[in-house]
Amino acid sequence: MKGILSLLLVLLLYTFSFAQLLYKPIILHNGYKNGVLVRNHVEIHYTHYTSKVISGCIVVSRVLEVAQVDNLSLYSTYIQKDTLASFYGTISKGKKQGTFISEPDGNIVTIHTYTNNTIEGPFRGFYISGQVYNEGYMHNNRQTGQYVQYYANGKLSKIITRSTVEDLSAEEHFFVNGQLESKGTMYRDKKVNEWVYYDYYGNLKKKEYYNHRGRLLKTIR
User: Fold this and answer.
1) For the segment 188-205, what is each residue's pLDDT rounded down to a tens digit?
2) Of 95, 109, 5, the residue nearest 51 (C-alpha)
3) CB-based contacts of 90, cutoff 8 Å, min separation 6
4) How much is the pTM?
5) Which residues contact 123 (CB under 8 A, 6 or more apart)?
């Protein structure tokens, strides 16, 4: 009798556990753990592509598939499309005017603004997932003002604020979790003045002090 009761109890627990899983959606292929996004990619759509006019838009396509654990053969698939940015540029006598998309560099595509064949104005780069990679402003083919870069998960990677003094900038670098990793001043690609460093959890690690030539003077831990 005890054996039968034990067997019934095991079956009851098994049935209850399985019933709890019946309504839990799962993701086919690859996707976020707590979402339904399976995979996405960027498409470049051209509306004009001639020797004088290049225009179009960047579209991200998201493929989603959702199924139930009780019957994996029953699932739905659909596609979402969002326009990330548009571009329109003209070429006259070999000179660019307007916004142009760059050739993909690895998994990054960028839209630059041109004035009289000079990169002048805002720019924005995108991962092939559609997430913004970087954004900033160009003046006479050089970055100026604030430059912001992101990780593929959308968290900040770095912020660079360029001073009105040429080659001088303030920089902040971040861990992939969004926590500040370091901050300080750069001059002609060398660290100068005070630099402060933190660990992954926001605790102060050390401070470094550099002279105006980029030579490390002292470290305080």
Assistant:
1) 999 999 999 999 999 999
2) 95
3) 52, 53, 54, 96, 97, 98
4) 0.74
5) 110, 111, 112, 113, 134, 135, 136, 137, 138
